[in-house]
Structures are given as structure tokens and as C-alpha cells.
Amino acid sequence: MDTNENKKDKVFNVIVLAGELLLSNGAEIFRVEDTMERIAKAYGLDIDTFVIANGIFVTAQGNKSLHQFKIKHIPTGTTNLEKIELVNQISRQIEQKTYNVDKALDKLLELKNKKMYPSKVQIAAYGLGSSFCYFLGGSVTDSIVSLFLGIILGITMTLFMKSYVTKAIQNIMGSAIVTILAISAYNLGLGDNIDKMIIGSIIPLVPGVAFTNAVRDFIENDYISGAVRMLDSVLVAFSIAIGVGVIWSIMR
Fold it and tell me: What's the pTM?
């Protein structure tokens, strides 16, 4: 393979990898397609893209015939805004001719292999998010109880993720556990509003960003992707409702 063809292969890999990172971390469909096309234009490669919520289809045109074609399945995952922003930064550097193909590929591979926030940070974030029940009308005591319940929820969800439990079961079990603990705490005289404590505790599970992105996909006429993401958000909400509802019915 000559040098020019080798460079085209690397450019194609950069384009696909950038799209994969964006989509797997919860970016909107129009952002994924726009970024891929911008990178291709910066490197002088003619491509056609078709992106849906869990897949990427890319073709790259050669001088006389089809150069490359790739289908990439992207499982629906969690939203990581940090990685989305870092991919956007890399694409901007590519447009400004700061990164050549090799450096861009190295940066994207480094980002792909970058680990998420440490478990301690994620657990602390669960607790902080749960303490926001104060803004939902809960008392200071409710917020303190919700903070600790959120930490317990974070530990529980971290353990579930390591054991590869399905998302639906994670949300059902997580919401059920914090509901049991919230009712138990209330019965022990901790907290003033049982409903506020439960709502505050399950806030970290609510798929707000995913739902917003689904709406944005609909607005951008990406109906297939919007429907997939909307359905995923509804299933998460339904799982949370099952976990809370079953325990509430039993313990009330």
C-alpha cells in the first residue's frame, strides 16, 4: 500500500474513532455527524456518514472507487460530558492543523483508554446530588439523610457495574434499597418528609441528560435515534418507579 493510501486509512480510523467516542459517551447525533465530517474535511477525505443511537455507518470515497466502508455498533451507555468535550477539543485542533493524523489518532486512543472518575469521586457525586432534595422542599435534616442515602446508592451502583448487572436491574435494585433505607430512617425519627428523602435519594438515577438529548435528536429530525434514546430513558424511569413503588407498597 502506498503512502497516500496508508494516510487515508489513518484518517478514516480517526474519523470512526472520534464518532465512536462521542456516541458512546452520550453526544447528540448531529454533533457526532458534524464532528466526523469536519475532521474528514480538514484532512481532505470525502466521506458519507449515517449515525443512529447505537451505530455508525461510514464510507470514504477514493479517487475512482469506494475506498473504505465501516459499520460500528455502539452500545447505549452512560453520558460522559468530559470525554465529549475532549473529543471536540481534538477536532478543533485538527481543523486548526495543529494535529497531524498520527497525533490525532494517538490522542483519541489515549482518550478511549482513559478511565472514568475514581469510584470515590463517583460515590461522592451521588451523595451531593441526593442532598439537593433541599431544593425540592425538603428540610435540612431531610437533605442530610438523603446525602448519606445517596452515598449508599453510589456504593451499590458501583458494585452493580463491576458485576455487569443489566441497567434495568441496577435501577430497580438501587431505587429499592434507598427506599427501604429512607423509610427506615424516617421511622427512626430521622428526617421530616419521607417523600422528599426518597425523591432526593433517587435523583442521581434520573436520566435527565439522556432524555434531553432524545428531545434534541427529535428536533434535529433524527427520529430513529430520538426514539431509541427516549425509550431507553422511559425504561430507566420505569425501573426506578418499580423499585420505589414495590417497596413503598410493602412497607407503608
Answer: 0.78
